[in-house]
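Go through this fold for my students:
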Amino acid sequence: MGQIRPTEPGPLTEAEAIRSAQKGDAAAFEFLYQLHSRRVYALCLRMVSNPPDAEDLAQEAFLQLFRKIGTFRGESAFSTWLHRMTVNVVLMRLRKKSLPAISLEETTEPDEETGGPRKDVGAADLRLSGAVDRVNLERSIERLPPGYKTVFVLHDVQGYEHNEIAEMMGCSVGNSKSQLHKARTRLRELLQEKQREHARQERHAAKTQTAQND
């Protein structure tokens, strides 16, 4: 009979890595870093629009993870828990740097006709033309005021609910909805500006081509 060889362990799963990292296993923590680092960096970059700052914040988020991974109880997905931690790290940095931002305590603008609050605040009122390319959309998002952009990214990009955003940002649900409405409105304006600029460039190019042909 041939000698029976021990079965080699299979690839590490996220759940196994979390349990091992909670016990201080450095290799397991490295596994989690490799698994989530790109998404954490992308989230930081979305929120601060500066690659060096985003890299620094991503590293800070993983330092926080190293310190606090023992508190993860599996009540939500690990990626959701990590993203919330990352958002809090970024928000703390923004507060410390006192970056200009739109006040999250700004009240909802009243409806011009009724005098009451607008009923469409927070509604999905951003209708983007299929002709708008991703590059213009990304650039327009980057041009949003910091307060608007943060809520827009958290809600429309990362998928957080308004009550979650309100808790993270330290504001009311109504203010979160108001900021999102204003962000979408401003984003639509920026995209329309891009479309008009593109149309002007096309008309100019057409005139130039016609003049050359003549």
Summary: The longest helix spans residues 173-213. The two ends are 92 Å apart (CA to CA). DSSP finds eight helices and no strands in the chain.
